[in-house]
Design a protein that fits this description.
Blueprint lengths: L1 H9 L5 H20 L10 H13 L4 H20 L26 H8 L7 H16 L3 H5 L6 E2 L4 E5 L5 E5 L2 H19 L18 H15 L7 H14 L4 H8 L4 H4 L1 H17 L4
Antiparallel strand pairs: 1-2, 2-3
């Protein structure tokens, strides 16, 4: 190992932090081999490397760290082959793990309640903000769909909104009575004042009577999060994630959630089942006597 580290320092001129990572990875590997009483470089087989990686996974090592360890071992064994210290590279049949798709960040139901009640003023802009936040969580729209929503797409009597999403695919999404009430209040007391005797097909307007933008709504969400003291990174998409996760947590079927979100492939929707499973596991560990 010392010869390899010298090669990395003198010939590849790697940075100190990178060298430390190599050294740490190799130390963990050789510790694993020692536990299995493997002491000769020539006797190391692919199965031994797989065994090491399995133990890393059992210890909770992330896929990214495991990928780095595989890369370290590949470099190490290729160096040994080049120096004629071993005949064959045992890492040749080892594949790098695919990086796992990060799970969506979601809010708890109490956090959503805080966020939705964060606009307590009765001026036109606050009424608009309340309506937008409530509709977003109630329907799970994409932020681009929300800010570009035409007034004509809204059916307050039926409690639905007609969306033309990605690929111009049309879907009808329901929303609840609470969101409907906020929208009605905005349409009665807020939108006419923002319209300022102009005409606009847009449902949600700026203080100049124009259509809302994604950036402006993102800023509104950030301001509301700050005012309510929610200690999480929250974006408009977080409410869409929360919408889907909370539906599944309360028994909604995956196909219905897929239709409401406008996903063309149900595999995209399945990511939310992993969030739900993670919470179930956490609850089990917390409350089960043998958890």
């Amino acid at each position: 190992m010392d010869l390899f580290l010298h090669y990395l320092t003198a010939e590849r001129r790697l940075a100190a932090n990178t060298l430390e990572s190599y050294q740490s990875d190799l130390a963990a590997f050789f510790s694993h081999l020692a536990g299995k009483r493997i002491r000769s470089l020539q006797s190391i087989r692919t199965a031994d490397i797989r065994s090491f990686l399995d133990s890393c996974h059992t210890q909770g090592i992330s896929s990214r760290s495991n990928a780095r360890r595989i890369s370290t071992l590949r470099s190490f064994f290729r160096f040994l082959v080049s120096e004629n210290m071993i005949q064959q590279d045992p890492t040749g049949a080892i594949d790098l793990p695919k990086p796992g798709r990060p799970l969506p960040k979601v809010l708890t139901v109490p956090e959503v309640t805080l966020l939705l009640n964060g606009q307590n003023l009765s001026d036109p802009l606050s009424l608009r903000n309340q309506a937008m936040l409530h509709l977003l969580y109630a329907s799970g729209l994409r932020v681009s769909e929300l800010v570009n929503l035409p007034l004509a797409a809204l059916n307050l009597t039926g409690g639905t909104v007609r969306i033309f999403g990605k690929g111009s695919k049309e879907r009808l999404v329901p929303f609840g009575e609470e969101a409907a009430g906020r929208i009605k209040t905005y349409l009665r007391d807020g939108r006419p004042l923002l319209l300022k005797k102009k005409r606009s097909p847009a449902l949600f307007l700026t203080n100049r009577g124009g259509a809302m933008t994604r950036l402006r709504f993102w800023q509104i969400v950030q301001q509301t999060v700050f005012q309510t003291g929610i200690n999480k990174k929250v974006s408009p998409h977080t409410l869409r994630h929360s919408f889907a996760t909370h539906l599944l947590e309360h028994g909604a079927d995956l196909r219905s959630v897929q239709m409401m979100l406008g996903h063309s492939d149900i595999a995209t929707t399945q990511i939310y089942t992993h969030v739900d499973s993670r919470r179930l596991k956490s609850t089990h560990q917390k409350f089960h006597p043998r958890g």
